[in-house]
Design a protein that fits this description.
The chain contains ten helices and 15 strands. With 338 residues, it is of the alpha/beta class. The chain has two domains: 144 residues, 3-Layer(aba) Sandwich (Rossmann fold); 176 residues, Dihydrodipicolinate Reductase, domain 2. Helix 4 runs parallel beside helix 5 and helix 8 crosses helix 10.
Amino acid sequence: MKTYRVGVVGCGAVWNYHRLVFEMSDRLTCACVYDPVEERTGEAAALTGARAAASAEEVLTAEDVDIIAVLSPAFTHADYVETGAAAGKHFMLEKPMSTTLDEADRIVQAIDAAGVKCFHPTLRALASDVFEKLQELTAESGPLGPVKSAFFHLVGAPLTRSPWMVDRERCFPPAEYDPHVFDTLLELTGDEPSSVFCHKGRYCRSFEQDDVTTMLVNFRGGPFLQFDCHWVLDPDWTCGSTQSFEIICERGLIRHKWFGLEWHTEDDKGEFQSSRNATDGVRTQGDRWEHYHALIDAIENGTKLSPDEHDGLRYVRIQDAALRSAAAGQPIQLNCTG
């Protein structure tokens, strides 16, 4: 069996989850790594035995790389995918795929034109067993029935104040969470958004970045999603963030706990816990080697990947509409699907 060589661009927090892949899979090896912070590049190279690259382009075009793990900020993704796809590389592309529709379109077009493969690990991939349970519960004949509405609410401390995260042109803070929520609802309902209304602004932060965002997404078949994201807590309080994700169905309520579920009907209740959220230093935040192995299967056998770049494009349409709505102060009607 072929061993696939992975080049990594971006060695921040999410890199630690991907690093474990190379310890757990005999089909993958880390060939080279790059991060604009030189110390991170050196640490990642030391941990994996990979080559420390001098630039992202070196990784994206390296002859000894088969798969690019794009773990960098969202605003870099379109450029990196275009360069890597032109060089025949396949992708493990972290979320958010992008925050603008133009960049998402560029990513999809580059991958399609090159005929390469891309896995895009949103929550339904990270906790795939939870999503399978959701599908069972919300089927037409399932115990809870089809989804009628959903509500996501987050109150937390600001994201890390790295330069790109406080740049309003480059960072949309809710994109840390909304790809997971949007992608879950889109796939679970099989529906398409019809309109998006969004308000955002800076109310509590001492630095120039929006900290309050609320969105209302209406779907063509009738369901709606209310999404609220508030980065308003003082980090010095160290009280942690609070989060809730409720899905209302025809016959009951599901509390989605990211790596677990709790549900209630008139006559019954139940719980489900993912097997992919152990914290023993090996299985943390999803079995990501499964994602790489799915990517390898798609490369070798042409199997369909899900989520992929087209799924990313679907939720970016909602993000893009939200940003346009906030700027215009009115709902944005969505007439295109794909």
